[in-house]
Structures are given as C-alpha cells and as structure tokens.
C-alpha cells in the first residue's frame, strides 16, 4: 500500500523529543509505532499472565484466597480508574514524555512485584503497576492519532488491534510456559520479570523516534478525577472479586449515582476531565455502546471457554492457552487486513458464526475429540473479532479534536475495562448458575459443563448480535 501522508510539519507546541532520531520521518513513525505497540503488548499481557501464576503465588507467599484475588484485581482496578486521568496528563504534559514516564514506572513496578517478600507488598506493587499502565497506555492511541492520517492511520490502528488480540491470548500461553520452564528457579516471579526486556526495548525505541505532541493544556480536574475513580471502583470491584448478586447490584447502583454526579461536576468545570462536547457526539456515544457489547461478549466467552477446557476437558492452563492460540492468530491477521470501516458489521457476523459453532461442537462431539473440532470455530471467531476491533477504534475516534485525543482515548479504554469486568461478572455468573456448582470444583460431571457451556455461549451470541446491529448503525454515521 502506498502511503498518502508523511508526518505533518512540527507545530510550535510539538517539537521532537530531545533524543529524537535523524532517521527519515516516514520511516521513523513506523519504528515509533513498533516501540509503542511493544509497550501496549506488555501492559495488556500483564492483565492475563498473572492469572496463571496465582496458585503458585498463594502457596509461596502463604496468602489467603482473598489476598491473591487482590493481586489480580489491584492491577485491573488501578489501571481502569486512572485511564481518563492518564489520557489528560498526556494532553497537558506531552504524550511522549508521559508515555516514557509510564513505561519506566511500569518496569520498576514489575521488578518490585518480582522481588515481593510478602503478599501485601505484592498487592501494593501491583497497584503501582496498574497506575503506570494507566499513564502509559492512553498515550498510544493519541500518538497514533497525531502521527498518522488516512490509510496509514488505518494500518496503524490495525496493528494496534492485532497487538490487543495477541496480548489477550499470549498471557495464558506465556504465563503457563514460564511456570513450566521455571528459568533460574524463579517460579511465579518470572511472570513479572518478563516485562523488563519488553519495557527496556520500548523505552529505547520510543525515546528515539516518538515526537512530542500536546492536547489541551488544562489544569487537572482533581475533583472530577476523584469522583470518577470512586464510581469505577464501585462498578468494577464487585465483578473482579466475584461478589454476590446483592453486592453487584449495590455496586451498580452506587456507580450509576456517582457517574451522574461526575457528569454534573464536569458540566460546571472550566477545564473538565472529560469535555462534555465529547459525549455530545453521536459517534462517541454509539461507539462506546458498541465497545461495551463487543468486549463484554469477548471477555465472557474467554472465561467460559477456559473453564470448559480446563475443568471440563481436563486440559492444563498451558494447553488451554495453546488451544486459544488460533483465536488470537485469527484476530491478529484480520486486524491487519481489515482496514475499512465496512468490515465492522461483517466482522461481527463472522464472529457470531464462529461462536454459533461452539455449542454444536460441545453438544454433539465426544469429549476426546472436542478440541480438534473447536479449533476451526475459534479461528473463525477470532477472525471476525479482529475485523471489528481496529475499525471500531478508528470509527469512535474519527473526527475527535486533537486537543481531546488523550481524554477520548482514556474514555475508550475505560469503557473497554468496564465491558471486560461486566462480561466476566454476567457471563461467569450465568455459567456458574447453569453449572449448578462453582466452576472448577471437583466432582462436577462433564455433562454439566456441556450444558453450561452450550447455554452460556448462546447468551454470548446475543451480545455478538447486538454488536452487529450497533456496528451497522455506527457505520452509517459520517
């Protein structure tokens, strides 16, 4: 493909960073993209890689089940609640500078996690790690928006979507492989140290190639940030800790009230954390609804399939991760290939076709043969999801004022995290109720997993159908 745009001339407020390379501008931005996507892979990998290591952490640090839940939840919560603030920090202080600060802090927090002498120290380090990710990751979309336009931007967003797909699957594979390999007898600590080489390369590459850019240099809306953080904690904490339905309902109600308070505060602020003009755009609102449906369905499906493979079919975490691999590969390939917005609805339909094959396989194929029959369905599903992911990001951010790029990126990523938590809570809850027991509990017959997986996948199919409808509506907006 021939690029139609080179890097735009430097604006007075967006000079090259002090260590910028003298490589040709057109080449530099693609090298810069590789650097920031490596950091994206690292940050998203950490959402999943620790899950595989949790049993080893619990045993080694003599932790309770509640404590190890917070090892995973601390990262997710800190990451989610500060994403919008992180995006605004980049707008104000410079996206390159903020990105590099986030990467450096993330690497240091990873080393602290690996060296943790106790579970409380590990939880604290995980929270810092999540905050670092919230500073680092919103800058990625802002940098892409600043450096690329036209077909080149679509290609860059496709690479971003492919990175998301690979990271979501690689967490289980890399985590399981590291525990099986056990380099230097480090055990679970290697799951954190793997971030060090990723982060070092990202710092080196991005530090020399990413140009500086700013958005609106407004003061930080501390009151709005605090209220939004409390609202997101109320919404996300019960699902990630697998709380009861009563606690989930209470969290939802409290979160809704706090979000309403947040909106009221933002409308009165001269320098709001989330400019009201963003949420006044139909594309943004409909795009966020599509993001919620799409990612909630994905997260829920990944959870129920993991339980079916490990508890139902008796596969190890590493084997389960490898079975997921075709889904991730299909996602990555079509994310790079599906550069046109017209692919949105067809991608949702294709993902739904792959999902519809799962209940058929689970209900009709013998236990020992199911994996072989599931692989084509998972590949098809991943290919469809990849056709949605990157164009959806581009469609939501299309037309956003460059001054609001950081805030818009933060809102988009926050919606993704809310969708992930909601999908796990709702689909996981339905799966457990249909199973009639806690997933993974010994003694549950395989037939129960067959019934629960088939029924719950049908519920996920409803979210895929909703995604197809919403993408059709979104695609008509110009």
TrEMBL record:
Endpoints of the signal sequence: none
Record's keyword terms, sorted: Membrane, Transmembrane, Transmembrane helix
Location of this chain's protein in the cell: Cell membrane
SUPFAM superfamilies, A to Z: MFS general substrate transporter
Transmembrane found in the keyword field: yes
Positions of the UniProt region annotated as Disordered: 1-21
UniProt cross-references to Pfam families, sorted A to Z: MFS_1
Transmembrane intervals: 30-56, 68-87, 99-124, 130-148, 160-181, 187-210, 222-240, 246-263, 284-306, 318-337, 344-365, 371-393, 405-432, 452-474
Occurrences of domain Major facilitator superfamily (MFS) profile (ranges): 32-476
InterPro entries listed in its UniProt record: MFS, MFS_dom, MFS_trans_sf
Annotated PANTHER family: ACTINORHODIN TRANSPORTER-RELATED, MAJOR FACILITATOR SUPERFAMILY MULTIDRUG TRANSPORTER MFSC
The protein's name: MFS transporter
């Amino acid at each position: 493909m021939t690029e139609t745009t080179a890097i735009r001339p430097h604006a007075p407020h967006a000079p090259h960073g002090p260590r910028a390379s003298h490589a040709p501008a057109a080449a530099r931005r693609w090298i810069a993209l590789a650097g920031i996507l490596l950091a994206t892979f690292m940050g998203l990998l950490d959402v999943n890689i620790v899950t595989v290591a949790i049993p080893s952490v619990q045993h080694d640090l003599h932790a309770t089940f509640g404590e190890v839940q917070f090892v995973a939840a601390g990262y997710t919560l800190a990451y989610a609640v500060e994403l919008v603030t992180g995006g605004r920090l980049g707008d104000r202080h410079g996206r390159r500078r903020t990105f590099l600060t986030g990467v450096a802090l993330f690497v240091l927090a990873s080393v602290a996690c690996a060296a943790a002498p106790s579970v409380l120290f590990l939880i604290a380090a995980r929270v810092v790690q999540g905050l670092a990710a919230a500073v680092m990751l919103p800058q990625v979309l802002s940098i892409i928006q600043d450096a690329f336009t036209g077909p080149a931007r679509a290609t860059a967003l496709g690479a971003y979507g492919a990175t998301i797909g690979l990271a979501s699957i690689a967490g289980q594979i890399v985590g399981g492989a590291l525990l099986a390999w056990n380099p230097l007898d480090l055990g679970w600590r290697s799951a954190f140290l793997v971030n060090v080489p990723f982060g070092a390369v990202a710092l080196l590459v991005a530090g020399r190639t990413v140009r500086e850019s700013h958005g609106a240099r407004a003061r930080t809306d501390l009151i709005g940030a605090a209220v939004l953080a409390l609202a997101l904690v109320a919404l996300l904490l019960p699902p990630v800790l697998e709380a009861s339905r009563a606690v989930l309902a209470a969290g939802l109600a409290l979160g809704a009230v706090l979000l309403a308070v947040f909106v009221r505060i933002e409308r009165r602020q001269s320098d709001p954390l989330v400019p009201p003009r963003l949420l006044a755009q139909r594309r943004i609102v409909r795009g966020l609804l599509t993001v919620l449906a799409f990612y909630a369905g994905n997260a829920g499906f990944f959870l129920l399939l993991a339980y079916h493979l490990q508890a139902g079919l008796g596969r190890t975490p590493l084997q389960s991760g490898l079975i997921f691999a075709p889904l991730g590969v299909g996602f990555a390939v079509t994310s790079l290939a599906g550069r046109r917005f017209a692919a949105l609805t067809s991608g949702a339909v294709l993902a739904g076709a792959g999902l519809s094959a799962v209940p058929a396989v689970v209900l009709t194929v013998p236990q020992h043969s199911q994996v072989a029959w599931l692989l084509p369905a998972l590949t098809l599903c991943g290919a469809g999801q990849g056709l949605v992911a990157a164009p959806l990001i581009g469609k939501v951010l299309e037309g956003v004022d460059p001054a609001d790029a950081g805030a818009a990126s933060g809102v988009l990523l926050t919606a993704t995290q809310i969708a992930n938590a909601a999908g796990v809570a709702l689909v996981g809850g339905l799966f457990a109720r249909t199973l009639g027991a806690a997933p993974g509990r010994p003694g549950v017959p395989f037939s129960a997993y067959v019934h629960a997986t088939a029924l719950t996948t049908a519920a996920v199919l409803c979210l895929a159908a909703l995604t197809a409808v919403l993408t059709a509506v979104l695609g008509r907006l110009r």
